Amino acid sequence: MIKVGIIGGAGYTAGELLRILLWHPEVEITFVQSISHAGQPISKVHKDLLGDTDLDFGQADYTCTDVVFICSGHGKTKLFLKQNKLPEHIKIIDLSMDYRPQANDKGFIYGLPELNKEQIKDANYIANPGCFATCIELGILPLAAANQLKEDIHVNAITGSTGAGQNPSTTSHFSWKNNNVVVYKAFTHQHLKEITETVLQLQPNYSKQLNFIPVRGNFSRGIMASIYTDCDWEIEEAYQKYQEYYLTHPFVTITKDLPDMKQVVNTNKCFLYLEKHDRKLLIISVIDNLLKGASGQAVQNMNLQFGIPEKTGLGLKPIGF
After folding, report:
1. For a Cys staple, 16 with which of 232, 278, 295, 319, CB 3.0–4.6 Å?
2. Is the dihedral of CA 320, 11, 54, 17 positive or negative?
3. 80 SS3 class
């Protein structure tokens, strides 16, 4: 059994991790730590887990732990690892953005299995990708791998409110979010760094612009990215190339039917759809931001690290937000 600990256990991503790991056939949860809820039953915070677990939020115990998922907020993982020296045998999967940019230079592997599967298998430390980044990268990986990115890339992507985390803010409370849509961080979103690095890993000569307009939606979970760029492929060739690229990646499905977010919410799937308009290739990519964009992908990475089938524990549909 893989013995798992969770740091920062009270947030949305930790809740999704628990919903997966409690039913994972190869996992035993050794501890779940939350400073703000220390000593309380986990089901007091993640209320849908009532009856599924008797675990409390407790102190971290690394003596009997194989892997630690860090679900703290951005900027907190570096501080945590500076203040806490974990035993060398423990693998780390970090869900913050602290180690994603230039991950290799920091001793981490960027944990996008559809890009770095073989490196992940041998990695001790994983920087789990961002949700927007995952959705967009999966849409353009086959183009970059074939050296087909020749002009600017344009992306408009909308995400659910859980992407902003659990702590309430002026732009996440219900009365503002309900019946509302807003653009934010246009052309400057923090995930652009990791997306650009991913493109350059496959196509080092790419020197054009990646234009990204993020949108906050008035729904709880899911991301839909609309991506377009010039491409020499005709539509059937594009479908063939995408199918070939994702042949050994079980969570990505190429479809000729226009997808919607409800098809992937509560799954670890990504659906990709293609259209050709003159020279423009349009790619629609949909994922669940909390699963394939966060906790599901983190478990997928854990499976690869420990040499068990990639889909283990991820065939269920956890019920969350």
Report:
1. 295
2. positive
3. helix
Q: Mark whether 122 and 188 lie in a shared domain.
A: no
DSSP string, 85-122: ---TT-EEEE-SSTT-TTGGGGT-EE--HHHHHHHHHT
Specify the number of domains making up the chain: 2
φ/ψ of residue 216, rounded to 5? -90, 125
Catalytic residue, candidates 131, 135, 231, 270: 131
Inter-CA distances, 43 with 10, 14, 49, 57, 278, Å: 10, 12, 5, 10, 54
Claim to verify: residue 145 and residue 281 sit in the same structural domain: yes
Residue 170 maps to a domain: yes
Q: Which secondary structure element, helix H or strand E, spans residue 285, and what is its range?
A: strand 280-287
Tell whether 147 and 79 lie within a shared domain: no
Would you say how long the chain is, in residues?
321
Does the residue 213 lie in any domain?
yes
Residue matched to tokens 């050994």: 248
Region of 39 (left: φ > 0; alpha: ψ -120 to 50; beta: rest) is left
Inform me whether the pLDDT recorded for 209 exceeds 50: yes
- What pLDDT, on the 0 to 100 scale, is given for residue 167? 56
DSSP letters, 143-197, are HHHTT---S-EEEEEEE-GGGG-SS--TTTSHHHHTT--EE-STTT-TTHHHHHH
Nearest C-alpha neighbor of 227 from the set 166, 154, 158, 168? 154
pTM of the model: 0.94
242 and 259 together in one domain? yes
Residue 275: which of 215, 233, 212, 213 has the closest Cα? Answer: 233
131 given a catalytic annotation: yes
Q: Find the domain containing 164 and state its range.
A: 131-287
